[in-house]
């Protein structure tokens, strides 16, 4: 009988950080290994902390979805702009769906957290609020396989799970 490797659950502390309102970007690649990136507006870590959903702007998600169909690996970088506390979460794409209307408030809460963080650097959050296209969104579901520390300094690149 083949053994099944289970994804490690991330900590509650890390789950809270990921959902706190950060600068978030997803990276995918096509069948020829050419990279593609997209902006993620919010994430929801599922209660078991093994899966997360990343919310991207639906009208511009075509290249990301095409890449995930060809190569289901994805990497998401999370960064808090005012102090560069950051991590990278890698995993396997397991599906997508249209975001529900009842999820929009959480997306906007996380976006506001991002705007507050950049405001601490002297960049008015309103600059992003006026131009950032966030809705309608798609939820991209990922099974977490690895997490790495990305903040500058000692421990950068260290595996967290």
Question: What structural keywords apply?
Answer:
single chain, alpha+beta, 161 residues, 4 helices, 24% helix, Pnp Oxidase, Chain A
Overall tally of structural domains: 1
What's the pLDDT, averaged over the residues? 90
Q: Which regions are unreliable across 5 or more consecutive residues at pLDDT < 50? A: none
Q: Report the principal-axis shape.
A: globular
Can you name the CATH architecture?
Roll
Oligomer category: single chain
Q: How do the SSEs run, as a string of H and E?
A: HEEEHEEHHE
| Helicity, as a percent range | 10-25%
Q: Which structural class best describes the helix and strand composition?
A: alpha+beta
Distance between the termini: 26 Å
Number of DSSP-assigned strands? 6
The main β sheet shows up as: 6 strands, antiparallel, barrel
What's the name of the CATH homologous superfamily? Electron Transport, Fmn-binding Protein, Chain A
Taking all Cα atoms into account, the compactness measure Rg is: 16 Å
Give a quick rundown of the structure.
The protein is of the alpha+beta class. The chain has a single domain, classed as Electron Transport, Fmn-binding Protein, Chain A (Pnp Oxidase, Chain A, Roll).
Describe the structure.
With 161 residues, this protein is an alpha+beta fold. The protein has a single domain (12-149), classed as Pnp Oxidase, Chain A (Roll), CATH 2.30.110.10. 24% of the residues lie in helices and 37% in strands. The protein has 4 helices and 6 strands, in the order H-E-E-E-H-E-E-H-H-E. The protein has helices at 12-18, 62-70, 104-119, 125-131; strands spanning 23-29, 35-45, 51-57, 73-80, 85-98, 137-149. Strands 1-2-3-6-5-4 form a 6-stranded antiparallel β-barrel. Strand 4 and strand 5 (85-98) form a beta hairpin. The chain is globular, with a radius of gyration of 16 Å. The two termini are 26 Å apart. The model has no long low-confidence stretch (mean pLDDT 90).
